[in-house]
Amino acid sequence: MRFFGLSYSKIKFRRNSLVRIPFFQFCSHSENIVLGIETSCDDTGCAIINSSGRILGETLLSQNVTHLRYGGVNPLIARDLHRDNIELAVKETLTKAQLSMKDIDAIAVTVKPGLLFSLQIGVKFAMHLSKSSQKPIIPIHHMEAHALAARMCHNIDFPFLALLISGGHCLLTLVRGVDDFLLLGETLDNAPGEVLDKVARRMKLRNIPEYSQLAGGRAVELAAQKSMNKDLFSFPLPLYKIRDCNFSFSGLKDALTRHLLNKESEHCIQGDEIIPEINDLCAGFQMAIARHLVHRTERAVQFCEIHNYLPKANKSIVVSGGVACNNFIFECLESLRSMGCNIFRPPPRLCTDNGIMIAWNGIEKLKTGYTPTNFTLNEIDPIAPLGINIKNNVVNANIHVKSTRLKNVLKYK
Ligand code: KG4
Ligand code: ZN
User: Fold this and answer.
1) Hey, whose CA ends up nearest to atom 3 of ligand 1?
2) Helical spans, DSSP H, in 142-213
3) Across-strand partners of 154?
4) How much is the pTM?
């Protein structure tokens, strides 16, 4: 592979290799153009945007279909596909934007959290671009980028509450500024997208042609829309006695497996066959996830109210990450409007992983007066937490969430 006359595959960066940043003067009020690179999981994303959030060029090379075949993201295959795609993604994005690297002011790249080998491909390529074009690097936290993406399309002031729901994460955070996050709660086991992908596989949704190429969560959403009996299967409300903002999805996954096994034996299901109640099972499971998300988010709003963390007259909740694409789940979360909250989500292509949110986070950082410094591979951190952990403060607040809202809106029994 060649890029700007350099052979990228031959470039080796050691852990302490340093990309020295020449003196750059960024003005927080001037127009900047940032190129963003995202390779934290299984999407190779690149985008170029300007200070007003205009997308000048974007490329997203998804590996979803490949990983569907393997029953989940395979880290080594993800790395190889990123390696094959990264140069193409950047080149194509520059071409679409009709720009060259000399027009770019900075390179924003995801450095944490994510799959180590995937992160390395994006970061090494960013270092290579930085070295060859003498442009500074802005390191980006993937989950912060998900939370801030909504500010690209909606007028949302700090502070706001963010519920981030994806294939790798589930967390509630108070966003006080571009670089200022408080962590209220997170999942104790699986992420909602992860369990949706797993149960979709277990239910063999891929054998239904219209779902065969879709992410598990999207397949479950479409099947649930066809349900004629949404209450056929019952699911527990996870952690309902635990007064914190954490999440747990593994019990729901086990409950689904039990329902499925019962029905499979009742109908003598064999091989590739699918139970006739598949749509109802998807609807029940999706409802269970929505109820759990609403329950924990309601406590987070109450916690913020007690501590005056959110302005009384302007309480905003951002829902982002791949699972936020789910319209049913989002509509359930909209029930929190009755607590005086405005609920936002980015458009679907900004909810799932992409390069735009990374470039936008770079723009947001520059607007705060952030100055890029020298950069090394040590910035990579696959398991980086998000923000300051105040989960215990939530426990100490001992907030009881009344089930009325869940009952009314989600038929909680
Ligand atoms: O944010 P994302 O693109 O990647 C991660 O950072 O994980 O999220 C991918 C996840 C997958 O698990 C996928 O099944 C889920 O988002 N997803 C959905 C929908 N579309 C994608 N889940 C529920 N409903 C959808 N419509
Ligand atoms: Zn993500």
Assistant:
1) 352
2) 142-148, 150-153, 192-202
3) none
4) 0.93
